[in-house]
DNA sequence: TTGGCACTCATACTAAAGTACCAAAATCAT
DNA sequence: ATGATTTTGGTACTTTAGTATGAGTGCCAA
């Protein structure tokens, strides 16, 4: 937020300078009005593009980075989260058990807890919900 | 493409008119140079934003639209695809049956065919594969 | 040191999911 | 019209998934 204020302040100052310079240059007869207008047009065109790009980027980034807090918020433990990731990869309970070096019973326990915490009835629904809240 | 050329032509013409008008208005003394510059700046700023938005939109669309060919390539029928979408939403066979107004047996048949065509062992794996090849 | 929590595992079920095989309609292109 | 494909549905069976319950172990903070 501080950065944004700083950038905008600098931008406004730069624009004021540009205005004065262009006015002076025109009055002194060194430049034609067409040239001044063209420079102004180009500068503002570029500013428009940059501002728009930043705005859109800020909208896109949150989708990738909201995860960690939500996981804690739902009370999902490390092990449960590992199981969740395996589920989303399409693994069966047995396959997950083998990869995490635990028994299938343990995996089932984790899955049941996950379904409760994610408020899902099936593992497929758990995948969907987990993706929606951005934790996978 | 024709549309793009037309839009750009219209844009250039409009800009030339704007230039001439602003020049005339200034010379005739009706407007101050500050006002003319401000108008030019605002107009080009807006143009910059719009152009940039269109460019980014064109880059974003391909990600969503590579699907149709792949679906045909895998021999997935319309009905099967509908079932696939329901599966990815976390629906059970019974729930899918109710939404598509068919029996659970029918859904099971479709699911079995989907698993074969997507080369998946489970519905969760089918979701994963379908997402990877971009058909959902 | 002790209660709480995460992790582990088992048994015994119930409920879904998935397979195999068959078959009747509906749809569609030639 | 007709052969091919799609869609539909059933039965019977096997395999996963998911629930319920109980319990042992290890770790960490009060």
Which helices and strands, and how do they pair?
The structure is a homodimer of 136-residue chains.
Chain A: H1 2-27, H2 33-60, H3 62-65, H4 67-73, H5 78-88, H6 93-100, H7 104-117, H8 123-132
Helix pairs in contact in A: 5-7, 6-7
Chain A binds a DNA duplex (30 and 30 nucleotides) through helix 5 and helix 7.
Summarize the structure in words:
The structure is a homodimer of 136-residue chains. The first copy, chain A, folds into 2 domains: 2-55; 68-133, Orthogonal Bundle (Arc Repressor Mutant, subunit A). With 136 residues, chain A is mostly helical. The longest helix of chain A has 28 residues, at 33-60. In chain A, helix 5 packs across helix 7 and helix 6 (93-100) crosses helix 7. Chain A is built from 8 helices and no strands. In chain A, 21% of the residues are buried. Chain A is 79% helix and 0% strand. The first copy, chain A, has helices at residues 2-27, 33-60, 62-65, 67-73, 78-88, 93-100, 104-117, 123-132. The first copy, chain A, starts with a helix and ends with a helix. The A-B interface holds A 19, 22-23, 26, 33-34, 36-37, 40-49, 51-53, 56, 87-92, 120-129 and B 19, 22-23, 26, 33-34, 36-37, 40-49, 51-53, 56, 87-92, 120-129. The structure holds a DNA duplex (30 and 30 nucleotides).
């Amino acid at each position: 937020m501080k950065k944004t204020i700083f950038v905008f302040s600098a931008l406004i100052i730069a624009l004021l300078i540009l205005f004065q310079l262009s006015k002076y240059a025109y009055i002194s007869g060194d430049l034609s009005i067409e040239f001044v207008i063209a420079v102004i047009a180009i500068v503002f065109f570029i500013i428009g593009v940059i501002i728009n790009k930043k705005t859109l980027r800020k909208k896109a980034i949150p989708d990738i980075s909201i995860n960690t807090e939500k996981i804690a918020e739902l009370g999902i433990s490390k092990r449960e989260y590992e199981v969740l990731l395996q589920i989303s990869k399409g693994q069966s309970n047995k396959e997950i058990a083998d990869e995490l070096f635990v028994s299938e019973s343990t995996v089932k326990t984790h899955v049941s807890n996950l379904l409760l915490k994610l408020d899902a009835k099936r593992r497929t629904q758990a995948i969907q919900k987990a993706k929606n809240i951005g934790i996978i």
